[in-house]
Design a protein that fits this description.
The chain is an alpha/beta fold. Helix content is 45%, strand content 9%.
Length: 268
Amino acid sequence: MNTEAMMSSPTEATEPYRDTYGAIAFEGLRNTRDLGGLPAGEHHILPRLLLRSGMLAPATDADLTRLGEVYDVRLVIDLRTDVEADRWPDPIEALPNANLVRLPVFQMPDAHNKEALDKLAELSRDLLAGTGDISSFFLGLYPHIVLGADGIAAYRGLFQALLSLDEGAALWHCSAGKDRCGMASVLVEAALGVPWHLVERDYLATNALLEARSDAKSPFDVGGVDMRYLRAALDAIEEAYGSLEGYLTEALGVDGEARAELRARFTA
C-alpha cells in the first residue's frame, strides 16, 4: 500500500497524547483515549475533541460525569452490531448533552455479504470454543470492515457526524475499542493528515493498553491488534480504490474540501 500521499512531516506528538497514547484513566471504561496532541499536517489535533473507546456500558457514574463535564462529549458513535448494542446498551441517558448515533459496521447478512458474514460467523464460533485461529478470523474480518456495504455506510456516517458537530467532543467506540473503532481511528487520523508512522503506532497501542481477557463473550474481545490485520484492510482498499485517499474520497465522501473542514474543526 502506497501511503506516501497520506504522510506528513514526522513531527512529535504533544500532550495529552505524548508517551501514553492519549490514554485516559477511567474506573470502568477500557481503552479510552484522547487523540489530542497527535500532529496533523502543520498542526496538532486539539485535546478533548476526538475520543476513541471500548464500549460504554461498564462506565461508572464518575466516568460518565467526567465524559460529560470534563470532556463535554456531545456525540457518541456506536459501531457495534444491534445484538451487542441491545445486550450492553450505551448509558446515553447519563450524558444528557450527547447525541447517540448508531452506525453498525456489521448488520444482518444479505445477498451481497452473506457468504463473507457466514464465514466470519463460523470462525467466530470456533474462536470462542477455543478451536479457531484468531489470525484467520481477523485477517478475514478487516477487508470486510472497510469494503462491506455496512462498513462503508458506517464510516461514511461517522465522517458526516463529525462534520456536523458544532461543539464539544465526539467519541466513537465498538466493543473492545480495537478493530472497528481502531479502523475508524485510522481513517480519521489519515483524513486529518497524521503522519503514517503515528497512525500505525496509535493502532498498535491497543496491545499496550488492553489486558488479555479470559471471559470474552465476543470474538472482537479476543486478542490484540496486529499490523497484518491493518495491512489486509489497506491491501483490500488499494485493490478496490487505488489508494487510501481514493477510498476516503470515493467510498466515504471525504474529499479535499471535507478534509479541510475536519482540520479546521479539530486541529490548530
